[in-house]
Amino acid sequence: MKTAILKYNAGNIRSVLFALDRLGVEATVTDDPEELRSADKVIFPGVGEASTAMNYLKERRLDELIKDLKQPVLGICLGMQLLCKHSEENDTECMGIFDLPVKKFQSPVKNLLKIPQIGWNNIAGLHSTLFEHVPENSYMYFVHSYYVALGPDTTAIANYIINYSAALHKDNFYAVQFHPEKSADAGQQLLDSFLKL
Amino acid sequence: MLTKRIIPCLDIKDGRTVKGVNFENIRDAGDPIELGALYAAQGADELVFLDITATNERRKTLSELVTRIARHINIPFTVGGGISSVEDVSVLLNAGADKVSVNTAAFRNPQLLNDLSREFGSQCIVLAIDTRFEDGDWFVYLNGGRVKTDIRTTDWATEAVERGAGEILLTSMNNDGTKQGFALDITGRLSQSLNVPIIASGGAGTMEHFADVFEKAQADAALAASIFHYKEMEIPDLKNYLYQRGIQIRF
């Protein structure tokens, strides 16, 4: 099996590689169109800022390439947000695979809830094959200031200030807002399920 | 619900874990990777590795050690010590660190916080402040607590957040190593006035101290070292206690 991690100007690729390594999977980090198209699985990670990342992808036509992928694709964190329609982060048009907006958290009372959300939060309403071995209300590690609204493609819900999409699934596209590569055993279980799709 | 975080801190000197009492009298406390993996398995929510000799000896941080840690540990970890440039941070993040903490260099050159947050995002930039209470207020100390400044901790923390610090790791030098509890007043002041998470550090001795810093000072996370290293307190027991107290905690 060939697993490719999309190489672009957003962080945390190394920790995804290490997480796959712990699962006994060797992945290639690449932005080569042929390698990406021929991979069995593609992981689209990301930590960073939406418009910079989106511009980078567009300049290299990687956005078109991602949209055309037919194998299972997993977007993580910013990767998930870029698969959505539009992000409030610097008013960025994203790829639109998921017809959902990405919005900024607003604390109801000043400083009551910190932004970004940093830490472990539970996920509920789990209903995708990725969560087959992940118990309801498992804790996952989140780091984000922007969130994806709820929609028909939502497969897991988290609550921070409001209920939002912790995970999405549509056709061959899967996405998670949290970092499975940093979410201890529950996260590892999810990655393992993705690799076995 | 977002949970409160329990963060063991591994002070690193020459590749080993050490813990000073009031920043002095360093004793050996074990292998950092072994300890880190143990804590992760026990339910630690995050780890912090601080190269405590780095600033003073102008030593660059331990990117090789970071990579070995990252390979073995499936929870987030922060690395600090002697970080003074965008390049330093780039090396550590590429080595596998999730976040970096900056202290003295950011105080000397506050623009560093702007540069780091623009380059890597605020979420991976932790500002560490060593603080001591004297003459009626809390002041910032530098170089591992050896150099006093006349800047108030609240002023520096506020400016740092405006410049892009994503979290504040606040260590009270008065409390550190005493096991008499965290500094609730300054932790609470920062937590209420700033819109970023506050990690309380220094003074943990009992489980009640953790409950106090979460309940009374609204800390988002609590960090401790020696009580975990010397097995005076086990993380599962601590988490169970906090859970019984009704504090949101991850199991």
From TrEMBL, chain A:
This is Imidazole glycerol phosphate synthase subunit HisH. Gene3D superfamilies: 3.40.50.880. Residues 14-194 form the Glutamine amidotransferase domain. The gene is hisH. The keyword Hydrolase applies. It is found in: Cytoplasm. The keyword DNA-binding does not apply. Its EC number is 4.3.2.10, 3.5.1.2. It comes from Chitinophaga lutea. Heterodimer of HisH and HisF. IGPS catalyzes the conversion of PRFAR and glutamine to IGP, AICAR and glutamate. The HisH subunit catalyzes the hydrolysis of glutamine to glutamate and ammonia as part of the synthesis of IGP and AICAR. The resulting ammonia molecule is channeled to the active site of HisF. Pathway: Amino-acid biosynthesis; L-histidine biosynthesis; L-histidine from 5-phospho-alpha-D-ribose 1-diphosphate: step 5/9. GO terms for molecular function: glutaminase activity; imidazoleglycerol-phosphate synthase activity; lyase activity. The lineage of its organism: Bacteria, Pseudomonadati, Bacteroidota, Chitinophagia, Chitinophagales. SUPFAM superfamilies: Class I glutamine amidotransferase-like. The active site is at C77 (nucleophile), H179, E181. It catalyses: 5-[(5-phospho-1-deoxy-D-ribulos-1-ylimino)methylamino]-1-(5-phospho-beta-D-ribosyl)imidazole-4-carboxamide + L-glutamine = D-erythro-1-(imidazol-4-yl)glycerol 3-phosphate + 5-amino-1-(5-phospho-beta-D-ribosyl)imidazole-4-carboxamide + L-glutamate + H(+); L-glutamine + H2O = L-glutamate + NH4(+). GO terms for cellular component: cytoplasm. GO terms for biological process: L-histidine biosynthetic process. Keywords: Amino-acid biosynthesis, Cytoplasm, Glutamine amidotransferase, Histidine biosynthesis, Hydrolase, Lyase. CDD domains: GATase1_IGP_Synthase. Its main location: cytoplasm.
From TrEMBL, chain B:
Keywords: Amino-acid biosynthesis, Cytoplasm, Histidine biosynthesis, Lyase. This is Imidazole glycerol phosphate synthase subunit HisF. Its EC number is 4.3.2.10. Heterodimer of HisH and HisF. GO terms for biological process: L-histidine biosynthetic process. The active site is at D11, D130. Its main location: cytoplasm. GO terms for cellular component: cytoplasm. Gene3D superfamilies: Aldolase class I. Pfam families: His_biosynth. IGPS catalyzes the conversion of PRFAR and glutamine to IGP, AICAR and glutamate. The HisF subunit catalyzes the cyclization activity that produces IGP and AICAR from PRFAR using the ammonia provided by the HisH subunit. It is found in: Cytoplasm. InterPro entries: Aldolase_TIM (IPR013785), His_biosynth (IPR006062), HisF (IPR004651), IGPS_HisA/HisF (IPR050064), RibuloseP-bd_barrel (IPR011060). GO terms for molecular function: imidazoleglycerol-phosphate synthase activity; lyase activity. The keyword Cytoplasm applies. It is an enzyme of class 4 (lyase). Belongs to the HisA/HisF family. Pathway: Amino-acid biosynthesis; L-histidine biosynthesis; L-histidine from 5-phospho-alpha-D-ribose 1-diphosphate: step 5/9. It catalyses: 5-[(5-phospho-1-deoxy-D-ribulos-1-ylimino)methylamino]-1-(5-phospho-beta-D-ribosyl)imidazole-4-carboxamide + L-glutamine = D-erythro-1-(imidazol-4-yl)glycerol 3-phosphate + 5-amino-1-(5-phospho-beta-D-ribosyl)imidazole-4-carboxamide + L-glutamate + H(+). SUPFAM superfamilies: Ribulose-phoshate binding barrel. It comes from Chitinophaga lutea.
